[in-house]
């Protein structure tokens, strides 16, 4: 006898037998979309529960209360990961917290070991990744670890948890409180499709290769930053910022611009630009070496096919094309002044994220446009793009961008101010070298993301009976 019989998908209506009813009697647990995905997993040739292959554990309430104190977090040296650090098949080390090493060692149950699967279980998103080698890590709030007790490819399993069917399983098992949460018992009971080892390895290898490419991209970015830092001596100017005037400043008449508010002229940027001139660095305004334009507002139900880049799509060096909205070809053709070209720099110009800058470069996407909360800088010499991007993302570059913000409640950056930002000029050979390194880093990031997408698709094809290693 079937556990479930789907009567209707829209509206959702499901018949279930008494055996299938567990302690969950809310209708959301039995909605048709979840049942369809559950039934597909259940039909796989070999399925086991998470608990058959993994020990599942999290930071206990008393561990957090007793040991994650303000004093300990101030003196901490070991990274404790929280749900915001666990991304899809990777760890984001921004906004981390740290605990003292001796506490890390004493809380054995919540220590993280290499190849543990880390899963965020509270909040809107439930994402999984594997713990890297050669770094001490600890569980923080709202994440758990799955430690394998039998031979299984952990990268395959983390990919299953991130794919459509894993996410459907986790979403079904969530319980609603202040935040949606999946408790440890329900995580242990989630069904895992277990393919032969060679298929697990085939899928897992894609994720491992993606991790290698991502790490290589980080190394390349750091290499390019070090070249620029050495050439411009940015570390020296970072230190000099603290000596910038805070209360008053004398300005030559020719330096007075459209702004007449005093704070615009009493800031670190003017001071650092003067310091750079003293050190013999040649400075040019962006308007001297580039054109500046902005995007447009867009709403349409027409057929869409051209990427429409928004602030939320700016992702470190590059554009996150996985999240972009699309515009129709007719609108794209009409908005010629907002059409992007390869190597354009994209700026966030409104809200709390002013200062974000990314590069429009993608060897598979030649056309794109952008939204009204972003602007582009099109450099006359494309070889300038990478070094200018890195400079603008540096401490000194960020100060230069933020100088021009107007508005108290609705912050804004004008195109005029972007054009007035001073950029140090560097040697042509050096900027070409930086450009090659940064483009290689971006290519690696794109390929890494593509491999993760392929791995997820492989798992979904496996469950649906469409998988082939020959593809």
Automatic annotation (TrEMBL):
InterPro entries: Restrct_endonuc_typeI_TRD_sf, Type-I_RS_S_subunit. Residues 203-234 form a coiled coil. The keyword Ribonucleoprotein does not apply. Keywords: Coiled coil, DNA-binding, Restriction system. GO terms for molecular function: DNA binding. GO terms for biological process: DNA restriction-modification system. It comes from the Bacteria. This is Restriction modification system DNA specificity domain protein. It comes from Tepidanaerobacter acetatoxydans (strain DSM 21804 / JCM 16047 / Re1).
